[in-house]
Amino acid sequence: xxxxxxxxxxxxxxxxxxxxxxxxxxxxxxxxxxxxxxxxxxxxxxxxxxxxxxxxxxxxxxxxxxxxxxxxxxxxxxxxxxxxxxxxxxxxxxxxxxxxxxxxxxxxxxxxxxxxxxxxxxxxxxxxxxxxxxxxxxxxxxxxxxxxxxxxxxxxxxxxxxxxxxxxxxxxxxxxxxxxxxxxxxxxxxxxxxxxxxxxxxxxxxxxxxxxxxxxxxxxxxxxxxxxxxxxxxxxxxxxxxxxxxxxxxxxxxxxxxxxxxxxxxxxxxxxxxxxxxxxxxxxxxxxxxxxxxxxxxxxxxx
Length: 303
Prior knowledge:
Elements: H1 22-44, H2 52-79, H3 87-96, H4 103-108, H5 169-194, E1 197-199, E2 209-211, H6 221-224, H7 228-254, H8 262-267, H9 279-283
Antiparallel strand pairs: 1-2
């Protein structure tokens, strides 16, 4: 309105806190420039004062209009396989938006226009690099300068990512105990989820589940059966004994004696030259200590 207080060029956050990041400062500087332009246009049109809300609304409208011009010009530019918009793209955009391009030179040469001083140059915000390692390489003399630059050094520089193993006794013991506790907890939870469980509380079955004990029909059987380690040692000893027996049999079968009756015995040997033995069938039998014949202990009689 004409009777409102005089307009000012304050931005949205003029009365609030100052911007902290460089990007916010960059956007606020552009916003203030648009507000100065809107205020100058209001002065040219004969307004002596304006409300702050009206200035903000006109600034938002101008910003949206300029943004739409840039977006449409960029679309026309990319449609013709170019990356930078030209004057023809901007003219086509203005015509598409319903603006009379012929009136633009006359409006630019008007006599009552106000000249606004150029705003201070603000550098655009620089995006910090995530990784920085080594020094960036430049092109050698045999590579033209218009070729792309080398990538950042962190993409091809080898950096070690391992640490020396900890050899302290206390740390190793604590780590081993922690791993063992974690394994026991994981195994207990797995067995509780996959098997039958018992609960300490009747009201809440899911709280503190306990692995249900499975009663065995023959409780003393586990004490009688040998452990896996004992079975493994028994198998190793049996296999070593069988190898020794076969080696001894092969050596005795291949010995040539000077006895005149040896030719007769050798003529009865099979082609392989090995004497057949009855132990071949015994090798296939599993040597189970509980299947062996019972040996009675010797009882000494008292005199």
